[in-house]
Write a structure and sequence with these properties.
The protein is an alpha/beta fold. It is built from eleven helices and ten strands. The chain folds into two domains: 93 residues, Aspartate Aminotransferase, domain 1, CATH 3.90.1150; 219 residues, Type I PLP-dependent aspartate aminotransferase-like (Major domain) (Aspartate Aminotransferase, domain 2). Helices cover 34% and strands 14% of the residues. The longest helix is centred in the last third of the chain and has 19 residues. The mean pLDDT is 97.
């Protein structure tokens, strides 16, 4: 039985058919669209000021903290995952080894590759846990791989990292909102909310655990990272930063947060395991119809080097994407069995 909370959430996306591209960009819930329109109207009417957005940002921070099971004091706001990864990369000591996943999204790889004096080693996803050694400083990986939807073996990675005293950095951008995820077992996490959390682009989050808190430097420190009352610390020359993870904050994209507040609240109120069960069931039904092994993923992929399948579906009004020579069909709250049937009927026509 589908819970009342999930049914209410699905109702926020009624009228959407044939959209299987949450892995590229999510769709906004009705309440987020209404909030953004109201905000634009207020801005147009000269009825907005910077201080008025503070409560919106803090509400959104609180909703995200609840979603990922972390205290609010451990949550920093950001605009991009690469900016978060650059904070982590800047903290790597000379000679450090960072282990990444071969083929992972470059936003959490490039910041390490550009650092001089450290070693970046890429390994297959399935070998990630066993590849950590006592010489590894950090393991950086995505919860869900963007190119193929594969889910990292979190228990194995966490166990191996603890055994070898390795810092953990997990990017949940392709998972938070569809796959159950708690940030608390990791030293650092990043999440850009414009995909499965259905928020406007420009709203991202960083979680900072106790061990990482002592190692990281707020290299992007700006006025929004100011002390207990940021509005009294917005002028130099003295630097007065917040004592908690807020010192890593970047100034928020105000209009984006006006929508994100409601989108993040929606997902924070759901049992994400129920969302995962629903979306992976649709994915497996598509696999069955295609005659390929079930993948048990919200992102279903299959080889499409020519791009013919992507083109055929898109030309017939079904939004999918192509990545790394594979077609990528992503199922989220607005999808149901009719979308599976439409894909199969189109490919067979």
């Amino acid at each position: 039985m589908t819970s009342a909370a999930l049914l209410d959430a699905i109702d926020q996306f009624t009228g959407v058919r044939g959209y299987l591209a949450a892995a590229s960009i999510g769709l906004p819930p009705k309440r987020a669209v209404a909030a953004m329109r109201a905000d634009l109207n207020a801005w147009e009417a000269a009825d907005r000021d910077p201080m008025g957005y503070d409560s919106i940002v803090e509400n959104t921070r609180g909703h995200y903290a609840r979603l990922v099971n972390m205290p609010v004091s451990s949550i920093a706001i950001a605009s991009q995952t690469s900016a978060i990864a650059s904070i982590v990369a800047a903290a790597a000591p000379a000679g450090a080894e960072v282990v990444c996943v071969d083929g992972d999204f470059t936003s959490i790889v490039f910041p390490f590759l550009q650092r001089a004096g450290i070693t970046v080693r890429s390994v297959p996803l399935e070998a990630l846990a066993e590849s950590l050694t006592d010489d590894t400083w950090l393991v950086a990986f995505s919860l869900v791989q963007s190119a193929n939807g594969r889910v990292a073996d979190l228990p194995a990675i966490i166990e191996a990292a603890r055994a070898h005293d390795v810092l953990t950095f997990c990017d949940s951008t392709q998972g938070a909102g569809v796959h159950p995820f708690a940030a608390s077992p990791f030293d650092i996490t990043a999440c850009h909310a414009y995909k499965w959390l259905c928020s406007p682009r420009g709203v991202a989050f960083m979680t900072v655990g106790d061990r990482a808190d002592a190692l990281l430097t707020p290299i992007h420190a700006g006025w929004y990272a100011g002390g207990d009352d940021r509005w009294t610390s917005i002028y130099g020359p003295a630097m007065n930063l917040a004592p908690d993870a807020r010192r890593f904050d970047v100034s928020p994209a105000w209009q984006a947060f006006a929508g994100a507040e409601h989108a993040i609240e929606l997902f924070a109120g759901l049992d994400i395991a129920e969302v995962w069960d629903r979306t992976t069931a649709l994915g497996d039904a598509l696999c069955d119809g295609l005659g390929i092994p079930q993948q048990h993923q919200a992102i279903v992929t299959w080889p499409d080097e020519s791009g013919d399948d992507v083109k055929k579906l898109v030309d017939n009004g079904i939004k999918v994407s192509g990545r790394a020579g594979r077609l990528r069909a992503a199922f989220h709250l607005w999808n149901d069995e009719s979308d599976v049937d439409a894909v199969l009927a189109t490919l067979r026509s």
